[in-house]
Amino acid sequence: MPYRYLGDIATADVAFEATGKSLEEAFTSAAEATLNVMIDEPDRIERKEAVDVELENDELEMLLFDFLNELVYYKDSRKLLLRVDEIRIEDEGQFRLAAKLYGEKLDPLKHPLGADVKAVTLHRFSLSKSDDGWKATAVLDI
Amino acid sequence: MATPSALKRISDTIWELPRGYKEGMLVPARIFATEKLIREMDDGVFEQVTNVACLPGIVNYAYCMPDGHWGYGFPIGGMAAFDPKTGVISPGGIGFDINCGMRLLTTNLTLEEVRPRIKELVDMLFYRVPSGVGSTGFLRLSQDEFRDIIEEGSAWCLKRGFAWPEDIELTEERGCFEGADANKVSRKSIERGFDQVGTLGSGNHYCEIQVARPENVFDSELARTFGFTLPNQIAVMFHCGSRGFGHQVATDYLQTFLKVMEPRYGIKVRDRELACAPFNSKEGQDYFAAMKCAANMAFVNRQMILHRIREVFSVVFNRSPEDLGLNMVYDVTHNTAKLEEHTIDGKKTRLLVHRKGATRAFAPGMEGVPARYKEAGQPVIIGGSMETGSYLLAGVKTGGHAFYTTAHGSGRTMSRHQAKRMYRGSSLQHDMEERGIYVRSVTWGGLAEEAGAAYKQIDDVVEATELAGLSKRVLRLLPIGNIKG
Fold it and tell me: Is pTM, for the whole model, over 0.80?
């Protein structure tokens, strides 16, 4: 997955940069980067539950913020570790996101635990278009 | 790291950035630190404390404590007081982990009695006080019961036999922020937190068994007042907050404030993490009432953890918690906003005081200090890294120049990423055990991230608060056992 953790931005927390050729790919990479903070070896997540997420926001950047927050919400409220199956983002005056996520309940015996993500922050939060696609930067409060 | 050239030395421990440092500053910024600590501070502190100085209604100065480092919006260690009529309230001045705080209890056991049982104690605590990603508490609560908890705070625990009456007396605000309104929190926040009561969380949250060695007692009279009467007496300290519930309350209102701040109230901020609303507005009051719910959840969380700790000690030593003297010293919060009365230019003034990674340190005689500590001053609990030790301090009469506020911890100097590159959790655990500290963690990586060398020297931080007249040292506590998320 095209993401990397940035060591120098966040002394007490975790920062990452996620990229994608399309907007959808960048959102997917950012979701994976967030997941991989909470657990190691995300490839071991099995397809046991499905969740549909629909979001809208005036700002594309804040749509990504909302999307990552959904992952944190499902981790706490339903103990679900989720990956992106399908995702579609459209500009209809409002930016709309429709995603199908899949995954399974967190099991500390199966998923090596990482750090609990308290919140997605807006510190240096950005989503921008580059020559070869999209790039997102985020700092997670842990 | 270079300090800004505009930084002016006011005294040995007070540094000031004047209003002219940045456009829009309404007051100067003041940082409490020794020369050594100010030189080590990251650039984020100077940038952020001066951003705070631009917020409407700020009174006197934007402050930062000696353990300051960059945070979200406010620096960690940030404190600012606002005029409740003209000022703002900001989640960025409180933190995502609302009412993150420290609780300390004593035992009447000594190191000699506990050392042989330390593994048993730590292992049992590790299982009885859940920690780590997605952990849930032992209370099976309905969402309606959770709504009662967040409005009632620690009193809820007392009614159900999870607290002793003196626990309530020895908790800041008696374990309940009055005016909490469960109608002001979202369904999502309740869903995130209602099954997390009694859990530590992860990151820098921990529960530690400590010893007060005679050579580490700085003020034996205050130490006695706070319950330390034996040489090598054992204490238990823990650090945690309002878990997913508080984090979601903060996230919800950050989003609300971002939407209304400029269009409705004409407020512009230099950093989105400083999103705010006038305190005297519907949104501001809603957040204040919701924040109080999260604060109450954190008090209950720490009370339930205390209950579990009492159970564990009772099982291991086969004596009742009362017989083991498992008494609270104090519970103090370091992420809140509160209405307080302070004296400015000789006049009593009501202020909304934000403390973010900063601890209230009320002086002897002040209202709000428990009766038994009236002459001693409010206990202040400062958590260090899991390797180097922690401190018990007391509020002092000279603290008025910082609205009776002091530091909260040692503050990181090394990123988590770097710490993980430099240390391996498993060998760190081994090394610590050699040095007499038995530690259990849910993750090796998480353990490595909390290595002692990743933090500022806590001795320097605590000394700076004493030199600056913010608080005084009572005793230093050294770890012998630790569980962390």
Answer: yes
